[in-house]
């Protein structure tokens, strides 16, 4: 099939074909960055996702995550890959050839670092779980501390010792995003802030917490894109990868 | 149930379970701030709302408001709490164990302060009613003065004496939000301005009245978030709480 | 002098003349709003300010504040009104015929309410002092709690009992403006938030703390314009005026 | 001189030369639009302005206005055109060959329409005077009603009958720009709104009144650019030109 | 019915009742502004619209327009007012007691002014028709010149003489909105510019043509809100009303 | 049919009529610009599109493209023009009287230039195909290089020699849009950058890649509107048209 | 000198030293892109510019342009390179070892393409001259057509035949930027649009013409950054380089 | 001295006094966060900075950094602290009681981690040096790789092995900020991105690279505020602190 023939029939028909015209997989990424390419599901059809999955499997990759894939699309993909596991809160699909379960105790024993995911409110759950589940997929242990926003700061203070034990702290918050600054001032570990688009009015789809976190008065807070729980987990993984490399 | 197991099954199944993994209720809030935690319904599932409601009831709270809950979600919650009352215009759900009606005359006798809610147009009704109903929930009397926008200023002027008798004035307006400045210049009482997202084009979802109100040429106007009728009622309640404390 | 002749000679020559062409003083404001018109100095020439001052004095007003007047302009105005006192931090000029000093102990005895002004950082001082000095000009007592931003939250917590004794709390913060939410969650009194333009980059001249404060997760926080310490004091004064009226 | 040689020496030297390389004067504009081209001074050097002035004079135009020209630049231009009159508040320069004074009583008798210029505050004076003086330059009578912002609405109401007599009303306001809506609701004549950049913080250099005016709840208000007093006068002139044409 | 009872049952039930709680009709508007209050349908329920219509009819108004009312809502309203005429392109509903047809030839004879509505593209039709139909409702004659955008400027030039005969020109354009400047430079009559939200990407829902029109290099162009065809017609009507008053 | 009767019945009925009231076709465009008018389908009804198509055919144009037309609308149009070909990925409809197939080999032999379309990710496919198919419609050859974003820069480098052979390079990218700068630094040919709205959060619907591309550190990159694959193809065509003209 | 010692003494002292710590010159650029690296003067000190110049000369480059360098800085650089020519309008510095004059007639004979630079107003001159002079530096012939904005469209039309003869047309415009669309609709050649920051108010430092140009209704217009006359010349050069390559 | 007396005399006189009214030093920060409070110089007077410095010294802190302090202010501070060292490029002042030089070789031996600071251009030097010098102040070794922007990607590729040896990589870039994505795709270590405000036009004071970096297609890049070289160093320090803690 000619690479130049993309447009004269629907991509849907074409996608199952082996040589991908619409994607150039980066098979080399694990060697270069320590992590396989993760498939970003948004804006891709189920057939495109299946095609990329199959292509990665064909190239010997056995443990693949798809993010931002809604349930309907995941169901279509799972027709071809029935053993893939769907996590509905973070809308992730996990393909794992060894059928090892995501939170299998044995695996946890192997886990290297501890990531704490802290949220301001219940509404931030979806984004937080993307961070948490992605971290677990990457073999890290996760401590979830949810709904401890600064309007009732004792809720955070009562759990701060727990949080301090983590190697990396991911703070997920919408609205004014103040939690990132407060945590950043209480914890010496790397803090990664994820603004969420939850809110309304002058939140402007997450602009408010994004600006807050960038202007954090606690210095040394790294910010990722709005709702980018995945990116936060990847930065945590870079930090823990460094730790692993240095300690081994 | 382990706090770390949030992600391996759907939150829907999990929520009815007693120990909440997705929320950290601030039971202490009434003591600290004079008002129970109010449940913000947006971005929460019906099961999460029900779970939080049950948890608050279990901790002895008997009078609870849920805001920003649409009718479909409210119907689901009311399957578990059939006596909760749904207010369709402000999209609030009121749970009240003593079954005391919201606007019961006996209760009104107990009311401490008078809040006037003034709107520029009919389209601001929904937001205004969130302010009004929340104030009533907090035992304040409410004077509604609706659709008196500045394009026909005599409508406002003809009712200004009534408005002046209120202890706090909440002004709800979309479009250019000019009403807040005009009221602020006519009334000596605290004025709380609520911009609304009603409008189109260069209203930019409420940005126009928000900026107007922040730039009010009448000084001493406090602004809350776009469409945040609830927040305005809460600020009014802080003011009336101060009054009550000082006068008792 | 003809009202229509403004443009054919420089306003500088014209201003000292008695009948003002460029201003329409609202002599009735104290009766209507409880406070004299305050002169906003920004964008007015020294001669215009002097002209308005003289006009107000001629109409029997003996206690007048000018805000946002820089030192050079104030020096020019004080040539005509040598007894006016200049406050350099908040850039205010106070004219007081009875020569009563701003913080005269006797006056303080008369003060009605207690306003706490809380700042996140030292850089917010100028705006905070506009709130504080304006409150003192309005005969309120002021408690200053400066530089207690959330990056070191113990600084705030150690002074929270003091702050809780105030009738109204004004929170002044730049950067991410998180302090307003934290204070709002710890204090039941009316909280007025003033975003400041101090900061750089993604602060966007105060947009970041403005949005934060509007999205405060602590409900019942009223926001005023960026750097508007004056407006915060005026809203505090409306609240304290209500208190005074009810208690007298 | 070759049109293509602009860049090899400074425009300053070149400008006095007769054939303009940097400007293409629209001599035909009066015939087409009823008004000569007006020289916009901002971003032009004194020599460029003088060059264009001379070129227009050479083509028989005897009555020319320059807008947005500061005093220093005007002084330089007046070395070549000593009889040109400088208006310092609106920063305009008027060249008039017949030496007819701008507000000469005889001329006023000729004036066709009455333009009312209404401002919210003293700080809007500069922009208002650009509207007023430009209207006078165009032979209209001007009624100035200044500093009648909505924070003291009686100031406006007390003069509304006067304003209603005008043919066109120009409303100049900064801050929240509410005056345009209020006037638009009280007057049936065409209303032209000019937002000003006076203000601070969330005024965002005039964005706040601009959006307000565009969202005016009084329908039929035409808005021009921020600080564009000139443009408002030109729109008024188009309206009065139509009137003149129809009535003659 | 008590004005304070709005919230305890659905507005839908209440609206048909005679005394309106949710609206304060400005019956005086025709006398003051020359035009009846026009009902803005967006954000109002069919019952609210019907209620306001009935209330206006009960107060003797016999010719009423409703704007921004979609077909479904209009159908509901027409159950109560079967003779009201629905115009589907501009989404307007016209109630006219004398059953006089909108474009009845006899009426046209009575029309006073000629409004030209010029659009850049076919996609601007809906907004343009709001201007055109509203102008016809106000008894003006309308000349439609559609799809003459500047990418093919001869299309505009070939019709410019026709356009010049109009008393007022309304220019409706999306994308870059350049048409307003070009028309403004070719026509001496008042030009009203209406930016439309048609477009995509960097049009930012009409921000691009809005800014263009405000910055028009042809001076004397008045701008109304994005998609506000109604407002443009109302400004045209103010101008033509002035003309009528002066000529009668 | 009278041009002024647009509004009294639905445009749907009217469109099939021959004389178009809602569109002014620019038949002269091919002569002037070298390309027929292309029909922009967004915001036009199927009947309007069919009407314009028929009108163009009636005027002797035999090869017409419609862009931004979704499948449902295309199906309606194809009822009238069954031979028109629909390309589902770029959502284009091609009408070609000679029934010559878009990618007919004979035609390719005629093709003049080579356009390379390079994308950062699979999600940019739709926009890229609009560029590619439009270029093919204009008889250019197209080299597709998809999913070579800078996160795995070797993917781009491995194909750079191929890309360098193209006459014009169109770079399509969302997210941070970095690909345009990198390609611009590696290739000496004209580079046209198309930002896409694919992404989320701080992408702000394509604002992020738009600003990136405008600020490209590789100089000489021309940017078109967000998602405007069509515009990029048209700019490429202008360049190739110049080449053809000079070389013939 | 150690690359790591940048910070312990002022860059000013260090810059004249031969090995540059603060810059990594891309000597390979001419081969790769057909043009030497051009030094962007903004944000660089005179010493840094001199250092880079010297380094380039030392590597055998004999013809170097510096852009965005103000006169004061240029004077400092010319102390070391007295033969460099300063162009004051576009603020460029040209270093040319063969002392060949920029517009030497002999050179013009060598010029390959013709670039037309068209401006809307006199105020756009500076940006236009950056395009023009840079094009001349790159050995292209330049046709300057200045001040032909659309408010007097006959000025443009009268020169359109001249413009059509150019190979590439650069349109420079501020305010509403309409000129790009109009030219794009009249000329079949590649059109490059340069928005300028000239203007005030809702121009928002060039945002208005930038958005206009991106939304141009004339398709195939490539846009560069605000005020980026240099970038436009570089894109023109890429196009003319392609032409040269193909024709040689 | 009374904490409430801040406003009645200038802060300048007051600052040298021992008890600070304008600042609440967080002496506990080193214990809590591993780093002393760093003094942010912007918006503080020289006297305030000196006062805070003295207060910290009095409390036993012997190694203190002041950031964002310009040379004039630093000179004033150094009158009181003549041994403090001023770094002119990053505008930092270092006070170090042991007089140990910042880059003393012995100290370097103690350094724990290696931070690579990579910049896109020479203009980013100031921000980069803030990162580099702050890292050195915190006892880390620094590898500077400057001016390797993506327009000449071979410059980066030729040094990538060096960069990969660092423990943390700080990428400093203005314009389109593409460097962060490219580095993020080539290096597995934690990448911290610092957007700079260098640029013009559509850079919008650093908004362009800020958005780019937040949307980086290379996942796991943490972003700090525009120009916040300091914050990047602090995040690097949190990561290296974790490493040190784990390895000791």
Question: What does this molecule look like?
Answer:
8 copies of one chain form a homooctamer. By secondary structure, chain A is an alpha/beta fold. Helices cover 39% and strands 16% of the residues of chain A. Chain A is built from 11 helices and 9 strands. In chain A, a hairpin with a 4-residue loop joins strand 3 and strand 4. In chain A, helix 3 packs across helix 4 and helix 6 packs parallel to helix 11. The longest helix of chain A has 19 residues. Chains A and H meet through strand 9 and helix 11 of A and strand 9 and helix 11 of H.
Keyword list:
about 15% strand; globular; alpha/beta; about 250 residues; four-stranded mixed beta sheet; homooctamer; 9 strands; disordered N terminus
Topology:
8 copies of one chain form a homooctamer.
Chain A (H helix, E strand, L loop, with lengths): L10 H4 L14 H5 L5 E2 L5 H13 L4 E5 L3 H10 L4 E3 L4 E5 L8 H6 L3 E6 L5 H13 L3 E5 L7 H5 L2 H5 L3 E6 L4 H9 L4 E5 L11 H8 L6 E3 L5 H19 L1
Parallel strand pairs in A: 1-2, 5-6, 5-7, 7-8, 8-9
Antiparallel strand pairs in A: 2-4, 3-4
In short:
By secondary structure, chain A is α/β, with parallel strands linked by helices.
Shape of chain A: globular
Overall number of strands of chain A: 9
Average of the residue pLDDT scores of chain A: 87
Oligomer: homooctamer
Question: How do the strands of the widest beta sheet of chain A line up side by side?
Answer: 6-5-7-8-9
The assigned structural class of chain A equals alpha/beta
Summarize the helix and strand pattern of chain A as letters: HHEHEHEEHEHEHHEHEHEH
Q: Which stretches of chain A are poorly predicted, pLDDT < 50 over at least 5 residues?
A: 1-18, 105-109
Major sheet attributes of chain A: 5 strands, parallel
Number of helices of chain A: 11
Give me the Rg of chain A, rounded. Answer: 19 Å
The end-to-end span of chain A amounts to: 47 Å
Biggest interface, CB < 8 A = A-H, 37 and 37 residues
- SS strand fraction of chain A: 15-25%
Helix content of chain A: 25-40%
């Amino acid at each position: 099939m000619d690479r130049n023939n993309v447009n004269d029939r629907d991509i849907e028909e074409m996608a199952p074909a082996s040589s991908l015209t619409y994607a150039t997989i980066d098979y080399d990424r694990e060697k270069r960055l320590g992590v396989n390419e993760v498939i970003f599901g948004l804006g891709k059809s189920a057939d495109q996702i299946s095609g990329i999955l199959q292509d990665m499997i064909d190239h010997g990759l056995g443990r693949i995550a798809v993010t931002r894939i809604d349930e309907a699309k995941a169901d279509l993909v799972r027709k071809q890959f029935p053993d893939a596991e769907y996590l509905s809160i973070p809308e992730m699909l996990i393909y794992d050839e060894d059928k090892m379960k995501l939170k299998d105790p044995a695996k946890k024993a192997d886990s290297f670092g501890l990531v704490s995911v802290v949220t301001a409110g219940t509404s931030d759950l979806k984004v937080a779980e993307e961070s948490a589940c992605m971290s677990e997929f990457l073999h890290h242990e996760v401590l979830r501390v949810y709904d401890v926003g600064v309007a009732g700061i004792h809720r955070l203070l009562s759990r701060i010792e727990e949080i301090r034990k983590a190697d990396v702290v991911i703070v997920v918050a919408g609205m004014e995003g103040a939690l990132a600054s407060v945590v950043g001032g209480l914890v010496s570990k790397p803090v990664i802030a994820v603004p969420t688009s939850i809110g309304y009015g002058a939140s402007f789809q997450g602009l408010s917490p994004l600006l807050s976190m960038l202007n954090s008065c606690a210095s040394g807070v790294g910010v990722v894109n709005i709702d980018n729980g995945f990116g936060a987990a990847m930065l945590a993984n870079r930090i823990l990868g460094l730790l692993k490399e240095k300690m081994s």
